[in-house]
Specification:
Layout (H helix, E strand, L loop, with lengths): L9 E17 L2 E17 L4 E5 L6 H9 L6 E6 L8 H5 L2 E5 L11 H11 L4 H14 L15 H13 L5 E5 L7 H18 L2 E5 L3 H7 L2 E6 L2 E7 L3 H4 L3 E8 L15 E6 L2 E7 L5 H10 L2 E7 L3 H11 L4
Parallel strand pairs: 3-7, 3-8, 5-6, 6-7
Antiparallel strand pairs: 1-2, 1-4, 8-9, 10-12, 10-13, 11-12
The structure holds adenosine-5'-triphosphate.
């Protein structure tokens, strides 16, 4: 393994991808137009980071990942992964990256998992001892033991996904790109996949770039999230910071001794009572504000019995963010 670089294991500087598309407008007639799938995107991911890459359909996520693997060549800008230009040295890079596309399998449909893995062993020229060790570890942690001799086409989606994740890791990649790794999985399979990825990142320091529509994946795995829309990077930072960008609200649920008219706090105009149900009331307040002074004010003026604070639903936050940017 090479000396560790402290920052910029994945580096994008004003990367663009423009597709020339021909749209049919009638019989024998067509119109050419350009789709700017990725529009001047810059970011850096440090070695060992686990970053979420999210955005609505057609935002440019898969296009970015395809450029990071070398499948697509950028139309402009500079892109490096582990110091390698992916589209120029795709084969050399392939030894250092692992890719899982949730909607497609890299496994051989008619072969048992074991045979697919053997083929990868040869293709990637993985040293025997390392291959055996990695396979054993994946089989154990992803619970693949019973499945190794089953043809891929007979596996359930969750089993196949675990098989695909193992396949992407047999050659010890330093970076793993995951495009929708939990799509279509049941709750148990999702949690198993997430647990495995968390351990992989913690124990091996594998850098992970994760694209998903399931925000629980992000909440449970990534400290940092990047949001892309219409090919542009809209947000890059802590997941918690998204709440501020999305101007979201938290909810204070208070239980009073008895039913009372909606709580009104003259000194806190940003607080709204949004629901009253018997002695329970729901108050919405900006997520960027602290709940403590609000609680103190209510406790001083009302017969408070109990309370809880509900965090904003991250999906609502992101939807709001797309709306305010004119996206979706
Ligand atoms: N090969 C291609 N030729 C022409 N246009 C393309 C091609 N690949 C992607 N696009 C267009 O580029 C834009 C970005 O697509 P991309 O697949 O990267 O989005 P995405 O964020 O991965 O979406 P999804 O969440 O639906 O998978 C879309 O408008 C898409 O139609």
């Amino acid at each position: 393994m090479e000396a560790q670089t402290p920052t910029g294991f994945i580096e994008l500087d004003q990367v663009e991808k423009v597709f020339d598309v021909r749209r049919k407008t009638g019989f024998m007639r067509g119109e050419r137009h350009r789709v700017r799938a990725v529009d001047s995107i810059s970011f850096r991911v440090a070695r060992g980071e686990m970053v979420g890459y999210i955005g609505p359909n057609g935002a440019g996520k898969s296009t970015t990942i395809k450029m990071l693997t070398g499948i697509l060549t950028p139309s402009g800008g500079r892109l490096r992964v582990a110091g390698i230009d992916p589209s120029r040295e795709r084969t050399r890079l392939a030894h250092r990256i692992g890719v899982v596309f949730g909607q497609r399998t890299t496994l051989w449909w008619d072969l048992p998992l074991r045979d697919s893995y053997r083929l990868m062993h040869r293709m990637y020229r993985i040293p025997d001892a390392r291959y055996r060790e990695n396979l054993e570890r994946c089989v154990e942690l992803l619970d693949l033991g019973e499945l190794l001799d089953v043809p891929v086409r007979q596996l359930s989606l969750g089993q196949r996904m675990r098989g695909d994740i193992a396949a992407a890791l047999l050659h010890d990649p330093e970076v793993l790109y995951l495009d929708e790794p939990t799509i279509g999985l049941d709750v148990v399979s999702k949690s198993r996949v997430r647990g495995f990825l968390r351990d992989l990142n913690a124990e091996r320091g594998t850098t992970v770039l994760l694209t998903t529509h399931d925000l629980t994946d992000i909440e449970q795995l990534c400290k940092r999230v990047m949001v892309i829309d219409h090919g542009r990077l809209m947000y890059d930072g802590a997941l918690a910071g998204l709440h501020e960008v999305g101007e979201s609200e938290r909810t204070l649920v208070v239980d009073l001794e008895r039913q009372l008219p909606p709580i009104r706090l003259e000194s806190a105009p940003s607080v709204r009572t949004v629901k009253v149900e018997g002695p329970r009331q729901w108050l919405a307040f900006p997520a960027s504000e602290s709940a403590a002074p609000l609680v103190a004010r209510i406790a001083a003026d009302y017969p408070l019995v109990d309370l809880s604070v509900r965090e904003p639903d991250i999906e609502a936050v992101i939807a709001k963010m797309y709306e305010s940017a004119g996206g979706m």
